[in-house]
Specification:
Layout (H helix, E strand, L loop, with lengths): L1 E3 L7 E10 L2 E6 L4 E5 L15 E6 L9 E7 L5 E3 L3 H12 L8 E10 L2 E9 L4 E9 L1 E3 L2 E4 L5 H15 L4 E7 L6 E4 L4 H13 L2 E10 L2 E8 L5
Parallel strand pairs: 4-6, 10-13, 12-14, 13-15
Antiparallel strand pairs: 1-16, 2-3, 2-5, 3-4, 5-6, 6-7, 8-9, 9-10, 11-12, 15-16
């Protein structure tokens, strides 16, 4: 299935000149202008965002924002496009939930950004049996040898999400994590060695009964094509 991109207007072509910090890219548009673009993914992305990388940008919807553009996708050194907008993983998971494409208990409604304990989870599903299922989506943009890796930099927040979902599962409440590989060359997803604390938290959550899903999307000019589920390698 194609999940249409929801950007405000068409995507613009550009080339990365430099990345002075994790939030900012200096890019050159095809008309020659050099502009700043916001980068939503805080990971290192060394094999994705390198000088000369081919980019896709969207124009910012707010005229008062410091950067007039947002970096959406980049062509990797391997030649495939990967989405570097983490918020897009939520859009894709929302589309899968609306299509009932994940193996989850029957649910009657979907809510987003729902607070529980010390976290705000991406989704809460109101199940047919009256319970609530908390679900967290994570964007996976880097890969090595066909294995998409998350996170690309240590993330205490991601580990905390796993621990709080584990606490829910340990008392019998349903919970899930969806790892979204936004690149078509991924054959599996695994915790990145850069963050062993997250790897331990994810594996512990899975043992407690948290459902761990891996899914893959190809990034295409017309949108995001769902490629199906991927195995998650927990070690």
């Amino acid at each position: 299935m194609i999940v249409p991109h929801r950007w405000p207007g068409p995507l613009l072509h550009a080339t990365l000149l430099e990345r002075p910090n994790r939030f900012l890219g200096i890019v050159q548009l095809t008309d020659g202008r050099v502009v700043e673009a916001h980068i939503g993914d805080r990971g290192r992305l060394e094999d994705v965002l390198f000088p000369g990388a081919e980019l896709r940008l969207s124009a910012a919807s707010s005229p008062t924002r410091r950067t007039a553009f947002t970096l959406i996708a980049a062509r990797t050194r391997e030649g495939v496009f990967t989405c570097v907008d983490p918020a897009n993983a939520n859009r894709l998971v929302r589309a899968l939930l609306e299509a009932r494409a994940l193996d989850l208990p029957a649910y009657r409604s979907i809510r987003q950004e729902v607070k529980h304990a010390t976290s705000r989870f991406d989704f809460a599903l109101e199940l047919e049996d009256g319970r609530r299922l908390f679900l967290e989506a994570k964007s996976v943009g880097v890969a090595k040898d066909g294995v998409a890796l998350f996170p690309d930099a240590p993330s205490e927040r991601a580990a905390r999400h796993c621990r709080e979902l584990e606490a829910l599962a340990s008392i019998g409440d349903p919970a899930a994590v969806v790892l979204v590989a936004q690149r078509e060359d991924a054959r599996a997803i695994a915790p990145h060695p850069v963050d062993p604390a997250f790897a331990r938290a994810l594996a512990s959550a899975a043992r407690a009964g948290v459902r761990i899903f891996g899914v893959s999307f190809a990034v295409e000019e017309e949108g995001f094509r769902y490629r199906g589920p991927l195995p998650v390698l927990l070690g």
